[in-house]
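User: Predict structure, ligand 2'-deoxycytidine-5'-monophosphate.
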Amino acid sequence: MIIAIDGPAASGKGTIARRLAGHFNLPHLDTGLLYRATARVLLDNGASLEDAAKAEAAARGLALTDFDEARLRGAHMGEAASVVGAIPQVRAALMEWQRRFASRPEGAVLDGRDIGTVICPDADVKLFVTASPETRAQRRALELRGRGENVNFADVLADIRRRDERDSGRSAAPLIAAPDSILLDTTEMDVETAVQAAIAAASAN
Ligand code: DC
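Assistant: Predicted complex:
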């Protein structure tokens, strides 16, 4: 079974994806990490995040050592990943890798922005997880503070809005709900309620 989970930043899709993977005993790929790692390589090399040729080379050359989550989860890395994610050559470079992951015999859970629309259009289950920008900013601020970062709510909300706009407005694989996806608005849900709703939706498939 292939489960595709898309949605905006801090909607809860990562937690839901991990829990679904555990529940159905499937491997999970957080595709945001691929974009974050690509941005990290560019920043480490002092390159511009908008240099399409260097960004494509970085995406094609990703190695396991580039996936140190502590260096990929910081506040500004989401924004940096969103910038490289708007480059079509980067998306093309990362596509095969994601499709290979999804083609395992047992299936897989992938979460991102274009999984149900571009990477796995034939997924068995598609969820589009969302929540209001304010709720997402609250969750993200809590998460970042938990990691020891000194952030304020207004900055985090502005970052979320900017990312929503860039991720939804880009021409290459914009963030959009697949027509056959199940919408899960987690604004009024706690984690457990959202996870149970997602498990119920996937089980009904
Ligand atoms: O899911 P995340 O917050 O880790 O993603 C960080 C950024 O990476 C996101 O704002 C846009 C980009 N991204 C993307 O363009 N496509 C994906 N499938 C996953 C992430």
